[in-house]
Amino acid sequence: MTLFDISKTFSLEMPLEMFIRGTAVYWFLFLIFRVVLRRDVGSIGIADVLLLVLLADASQNAMANEYTSVGDGFVLIATLVFWNLAVDWLCYRFPAVEKLMGAPTLCLVRDGRIIRRNMRREFISHEDLMSQLRQHGVEDVRQVHRAYLESDGNISVLKQT
């Protein structure tokens, strides 16, 4: 490999185009993950991993436009990381942005009674809820004062006193 080949490998052939493509795909995926697929109870399953891999592969061509340089790849990766950090910073800095971007906390159990309408809305089965309650040391839903589905997908439990 000659010096010329190495310089071409790390050159930046279209950094502005890569930034624009990366930005467009980031915001499209952001909307999908934060609005459409906003919550999931429990850990990441095989279907979630498969979805991520397929989305990455499908979006790669939309972002890359057949880039041939490692430098262009670096620009694309940096663009995605930039937008991820920018959204997190904006949500931290401005409560209105957090409210717009984040999912609100949703009550699933109130005073020992399951709120089935909220569970249906988030596709949480009775078994999923009971599994989460058991992980918090609760055997009977009547022991729960409040149980909330948090914006990160975890369930927080406040026991009866």
- Arrangement of strands in the largest sheet: 2-1-3-4
- Return the structural class: alpha+beta
Average pLDDT confidence is 78
Largest sheet: 4 strands, antiparallel
Q: What's the number of helices?
A: 7
The residue ranges in which pLDDT falls below 50 over 5 or more consecutive positions are: none
How many domains, in number, for the residues?
2
Strand content: 5-15%
Portion of residues in helices? Answer: 55-70%
What is the succession of H and E elements?
HHHHHEEHHEE
Report the radius of gyration as a whole number of Å.
Answer: 22 Å
Outline type: elongated
Cα distance spanning the termini: 73 Å
- Count of beta strands: 4
Describe this structure in words.
This protein folds into two domains: 99 residues, no CATH class; 54 residues, bsu07140 like domains (CRO Repressor). The longest helix has 24 residues. The protein has a four-stranded antiparallel sheet with strand order 2-1-3-4. The protein is elongated. By secondary structure, it is of the alpha+beta class. It is built from seven helices and four strands; from the N terminus they run αααααββααββ. The relative contact order is 0.13.
